[in-house]
Design goal:
The chain is of the alpha+beta class. About 35% of the residues lie in helices and about 20% in strands. The protein has a 9-stranded antiparallel beta sheet with strand order 4-3-2-1-5-6-7-8-9. About 25% of the residues are buried.
Length: about 350
């Protein structure tokens, strides 16, 4: 499975399914160096749940874990502070790929899981002072190490709460090459869901953002809201290269699962793709693009053939019109010609800038 990590859109679906853990407690934690972190939860009336965390990639419920031979130093630190801690809340930081577990024993703690870049797992006290981190990290604007205050990375646009007016403004002022890229990067939806929003709205993903009209932007915004609603009750849809929390338009999944967590758990976190597999996928993508191009060309041929046949059928009146315009140009200016032509019912418009005449056939 080529999927290497999850988007913020997909993380929202996963966190929705993690909510039954709230009010549960953590009796066990497992972690070996360079391996997954496992948190075992016990929830009243719901039993045990095992959560697998792969920093920088994803997290999900799982049924399987390898036996821990030697727990890591970070694992021992977490056990010291979090054994039998109660889960107060589980949330996503805005629309970022960051999960925050609020936990409580005698003291309150936050376990912060970063799924961006190389990823990290950070334990803080209730004031967000770092107690320990899986990886000590130095960034341009923040430091992740014990004793420092944990600072969340600067948030981008929050697609969950963005008002419609701001949404429209971002699209119409974007300098990206097409609409899909604008939605993927400027609004943080990622490529898959940016294209899905366009498809559901009936808007060409390759359109220039600056030519998208306000009514079209409203359609796109409405499609986004519908997709956000679908994240409230996610399921798993497994495709050749994607695993999504709801079905993609015009695509048939290879497999469906009752929950999105179950679908994500089918991923193998540390598997390396064969270089031949990458080449095959690249060729398959090229073939898919070429097939789409062929279909579009065939449609253009059909449309242009119909146009040609209609023009041939109306050849005499069109030839007469051209003759009249040619004669008028000898003595009149284009604005005068436009005034004269508009008297004819079949003349829809005269574009003085491009010197084109729109005729109803």
């Amino acid at each position: 499975m080529p999927k290497k990590n999850i988007s913020s859109f997909e993380l929202t679906a996963l966190i929705q399914e993690l909510q039954p853990l709230v009010k549960g407690k953590i009796p066990h934690l497992y972690h070996q160096e360079s391996q997954e972190l496992f948190l075992q939860f016990h929830v009243p009336n719901k039993g045990k749940h095992l959560l697998k965390i792969i920093p920088g990639k994803w997290l999900c419920f799982t049924q399987f874990k390898e036996a821990a031979i030697r727990p890591s130093g970070f694992c021992m630190l977490l056990r010291k502070y979090l054994d039998n801690a109660f889960v107060k809340s589980i949330s996503q930081k805005d629309s970022e790929r960051i999960i925050v577990f609020e936990l409580e024993k005698k003291e309150k703690y936050s376990l912060i899981i970063e799924l961006f870049s190389k990823g990290n797992v950070v334990l803080t006290d209730e004031h967000l002072i770092i107690i320990g981190a899986l990886e000590k990290q130095e960034w341009k604007d923040r430091s992740v190490k014990p004793g420092e205050k944990y600072l969340f990375p600067a948030s981008a646009v929050n697609w969950k709460t963005i008002p419609e007016k701001e949404f429209i403004k971002i699209i119409q002022h974007s300098d990206k090459k097409n609409l899909a890229t604008t939605l993927a990067t400027d609004l943080g939806l990622g490529g898959v869901y940016a294209e899905e929003v366009c498809t559901r709205a009936g808007i060409d993903k390759n359109s220039l953002p600056t030519v998208i009209t306000a009514p079209e932007c409203k359609k796109i915004y409405s499609s986004l809201q519908q997709m956000i609603t679908l994240l409230e009750k996610p399921q798993g849809y497994i495709y050749a290269e994607q695993i999504t929390p709801f079905p993609l338009s015009n695509c048939t999944p290879l497999k469906e699962t009752p929950t999105y967590n179950e679908a994500i758990d089918t991923l193998i976190p540390f598997a390396k793709a064969s270089p031949y597999e990458k080449k095959i996928k690249s060729m398959e993508y090229m073939i898919h693009e070429q097939q789409d191009a062929i279909i579009k060309q065939e449609q253009l041929i059909i449309e242009n053939t119909k146009k040609g046949e209609l023009i041939y059928e109306k050849y005499q009146p069109l030839a007469k019109l051209l003759e009249i315009v040619s004669e008028m140009r000898k003595t009149k200016k284009w604005d005068e010609i436009s005034t004269e032509l508009k008297k004819e019912k079949k003349i829809q418009r005269v574009d003085l800038k491009t010197k084109k005449i729109m005729v109803e056939l």
